[in-house]
Design goal:
Helix content is 56%, strand content 4%. A three-stranded antiparallel beta sheet has the order 1-2-3. The chain starts with a helix and ends with a helix. By secondary structure, the chain is mainly alpha-helical. It is built from 13 helices and three strands, in the order αααααααβββαααααα.
Length: 299
């Protein structure tokens, strides 16, 4: 199997069978093209099925010399493993040379989290007299109430919101669906936005079922949501690094702090592995440690 047919087949496998997003797909293809470039630079004239574990070890040493960070290295290894998983399925190889590759140890980076008071500060900074005010309030309340990714927020459809049952149906990564409870405050804000604001927007074709629209009647972009939050952060006088994802982290952390079951939080966040959700138990421990150091009389 030559490189062109291997890459084309791998791309089709990622898109159709793994249902990866275009961004993730592009990253994986880039990683395999990087491997191909390394082999060409080293004058190794080998096709994908002829690559050995030794070749891959050299490749990773070369990647490391390029000052590529451990997280990017881990992604590259995941990409190479996925490539050879595809080649195994196609019977192009009998054994994966990537099987024994070890992922670099990653430093655990705890995400920034807002307190309930800071979330209130951001929401109170919204100018409700502005045309976009009710929409922005409904968006932030939905981000915090449901722990949505920003891509899930901007793609949220009217037909996915059940006001009577108090749930939203979310289409997450890999087109996986999950049902997330909709809090009373978020529910009220969405209904008010739809009743008082959205009904007056000239909705463009293709956006009829989208909940949150821009002033031109089209679906909002992720960048637009980011800018809205940055403006509110400045207005509220908060000095933390805040993004739409911060609301998702805060949602999960506050649930764990309140005693929510880890499996339930995993389900609501749409995490494939519970190990991803477990980072919020670390955040909770940090919160408890800080509280003890701050308030205990013997500290």
């Amino acid at each position: 199997m030559d490189w062109r047919s291997a890459l084309n087949g791998f791309k089709g496998y990622l898109r159709l069978e793994k249902s990866l997003s275009e961004n993730t797909l592009s990253a994986y293809i880039h990683d395999i093209e990087l491997l191909k470039k390394f082999l060409e630079d080293k004058k190794y004239e080998v096709t994908p099925e002829k690559i050995t574990f030794h070749h891959l070890q050299e490749f990773l040493a070369w990647v490391n010399e390029m000052s590529i960070g451990p997280r990017s290295q881990a992604r590259i290894i995941s990409g190479v493993r996925a490539f050879y998983k595809y080649l195994l399925m196609e019977d192009a190889v009998q054994q994966s040379p990537a099987e024994l590759l070890e992922l670099p140890k990653l430093p655990q980076k705890l995400p920034e989290v807002l307190s309930v008071e800071e979330i209130d500060q951001l929401i109170h900074a919204i100018d409700l007299s502005a045309p976009s005010g009710e929409r922005n309030k409904a968006m932030l309340e939905t981000l915090y109430s449901c722990g949505l990714r920003v891509s899930e927020l901007v793609s949220l459809r009217i037909t996915d919101v059940s006001f009577d049952e108090g749930f939203v149906r979310v289409i997450g990564k890999g087109n996986k669906q999950r049902m997330v409870p909709l809090g009373g405050v978020a529910k009220k804000c969405i209904q008010q936005y739809m009743r008082d604001v959205r009904c007056h927007v000239d909705v463009k074709k293709g956006s009829e079922d989208i909940v949150f629209l821009n002033r031109n009647g089209r679906k909002l972009t992720r960048v637009m949501v980011f800018h809205i939050i940055q403006q509110l952060k400045e207005r509220a006088g908060l000095h933390k690094k805040i993004s739409p994802h911060t609301f998702r982290h805060s949602f999960a952390t506050h649930l764990i702090e309140g005693g929510a079951d880890l499996r339930a939080v995993q389900e609501m966040l749409g995490h494939e592995s519970i190990t991803t959700t477990e980072i919020y138990t670390h955040l909770d421990r940090e919160y408890l440690r800080d509280a003890i150091l701050r308030y205990h009389p013997r500290q």
